[in-house]
Specification:
- The structure is a single chain.
- By secondary structure, the protein is mainly alpha-helical.
- It has a domain of about 110 residues: Cytochrome Bc1 Complex, Chain D, domain 2 (Orthogonal Bundle), CATH 1.10.760.10.
- The protein contains 7 helices and 4 strands, in the order H-E-H-H-H-H-H-H-E-E-E.
- Strands 1-2 form a two-stranded parallel sheet. Strands 3-4 form a two-stranded antiparallel sheet.
- Strand 3 and strand 4 form a beta hairpin.
- The termini are far apart.
- The N terminus is likely disordered.
Amino acid sequence: MRAKRILASIAMICSAAALAPNTWAQTTRSVWDGVYTDAQADRGSGQYTQHCAVCHGVALEGNGETPPLVGQFIPDWAGTTLADLYDKIQVTMPLNAPGTLRPAIAADILAFILKANNFPSGPNELGPASDSLKSVTFDVFKPKPVTVKGKAAPK
């Protein structure tokens, strides 16, 4: 009788584990996978002009004291996630009023910066949720397609 209860308990635990979402493996995406929309980047352009251009320049070129947000800016973020860059924008910007940008505005500005650096847009907006941004890697170079026995893997 005791063995049957133990087996039933194990079966229930295994069933629950099989139905639960897998929290151990998180799907990783890249900035090359189109993680923002063109409409979001367009909104971000206006927000950038209002909150960022005075320091970082109209063309994101920097001004000697503040870094550019295009070109040489990219390698500085290699190996990080979009959560890192989003947090930098959200927490420390603008310089004269750090932490005052609403989360959606910071996400829109981030989308604009991605577009200005020629990362492709996609069908879904970039959200301000830190957990989802942690799964997007900031890859400087476009990853090469994975090949299987000499053939490109299907997308």
